[in-house]
Amino acid sequence: MDAFSQWLTASELGQYLLARELAFFDGAVADAFGYHALQIGLPQVDFLRENRIPWQCRTAASKPADVVCDGELLPFATRSLDLLVMPHVLDFCEHPHQVLREAERVLMPEGRLVLTGFNPVSLWGARRALQGRFPEPWNGNFLSLVRIKDWFALLGLEPSGGAFMGYAPPFNRSDWLDSFRFMEAAGDRWWPLAAGVYGIEAIKRQRSMRLITPNWKQQAASGLVVAGGSDHQPVSRQHTDETT
Asked: Staple partner for 138: which of 36, 38, 107, 128, CB 3.0–4.6 Å?
């Protein structure tokens, strides 16, 4: 992911995309509260800059991350994080479902997950299919939004918001990108699913317990046991006629 990070911050196309993704993350994390927030991947960029949670940390497979670790094995306790952001992490890992499972593990109940990913059904996906999967960012996984939502459902993560971004054709020159800026304004209205990148927010829902209650109706039908009787021979009341 280091090569992708360099492409995102140094190339003209990467900077075009980064500006839009930062705007998405800024809005998504601004109203998230709690005690602990974590960013996985791309430690050179602060995707938590608009969040006010006091403890913030960035992890990645290499420096300058605060904690160097693998996204598949996060060194954090279960249910310890209130907010987790993952910019393109699932695009550049070998086992994206395991990374998402680990994210669900460390999130608190009602904790928030925010991630972005490349949309395979877009002009970006078409370029990847035509030119091949080299170099960055075209060697990413390009997971569909439908698949991500299916994984969310399996893990008890409930989508709560999202956005599409990057509607312009993926040209490498900024002047060409500028000539297609009109597509940004029209994209959300006319072709939102064709955006180059999707962003999605999700809430970890607490699985509720099911209480097993006694079958009161069945007990009532069997009659009441009078105090003083035995378990084997319950005492019952009988009415007899008195004769003189």
From this structure: 128
